Sequence to fold (338 residues):
Amino acid sequence: MPEGTARYPDPVSLIATSGLTKRYPGAITALDGLTLDVEPGIIGLVGSNGAGKSTLLKILLGLLEPTSGSATIFNLDVATHGIAIRELVGYMPEHDCLPPDMTATDIVSHLALISGLPKAAARERTAEVLRHVGLYEERYRAIGGYSTGMKQRVKLAQALVHDPRLLLLDEPTNGLDPAGRDEMLELIRRTGTEFGIAVIVASHLLGEIERVCDHLVAIEGGKLLRSAPLVSFTERTGTLAVEVEEGRDALVERLTARGLRVAIDGSAILVDLVDEAPFDIVRDTVVDLDLALVRMEQRRHRLEDLFRDDPSVAPVAPLAAAVPAAAAIPPPLPPADR
Fold:
């Protein structure tokens, strides 16, 4: 497929679930009435450890049966079209599952054959994907001698070898050092943006999700917190943060006298933005008091705020009694021949 070619020219449901619930023996609920609908892209599936991310991926693959509810991939029911779905999906599991006595070429080509590629096409495709993930020169070494980063790349290669329309990546940077993590995230980003493959990245590391994804699905305790484009999670708040080198208390007093609602958060003064007027008032007051302005910027929401008891409220330090509280890679891979 040519680089940058859209693989889904018309809107299509990538994954849809309705009331999806999974309970394990011992009154353990992994998913609790999960309902969502997302379109193709690079999707971040985020939540703390135990939030239900891996359970959701395994249900989508047909590896687990839900207790109740339903799920589809590309409008195919996971309960009745498991084989058809697995032809369209590449899966990178979280844990180490590679045979140590096999080479990267052995395992990836074997899985290509299982996926239905002819022998010659499987060999060719294996070489291409191993080159893509940066293991071409090491492809004949036994996997038992690989580093953790190299093993993660083999898992990504086997997920790509049959030219899937969707990649399910479960904690793809698990066990990697900072450099290896950066390289893996870049591989994921390029795979999604340049090769036209939809990607779902399950991770508990919010910083990674923010770097590579364009849509985010946040779950906690098996329930959906929010599903929306990533930019909507980090949109601007109604709070203006102001810092000055000296004279903070004088500035607070003057701004309060001008009718602004302010709070103190460490070295910053937080000003409630009901309209655009506070920008001019703060600027003029800083000039009148002859203060050195360090910064003045409108705060943005953070992904971490999703997992607070009240995600709409970011914590601030207690206010002084006199201060009113503020409102809170290589060229793209060609399609595989089947």
About this structure: DSSP finds ten helices and 14 strands in the chain. The first helix runs from residue 53 to 60. The mean pLDDT is 84.
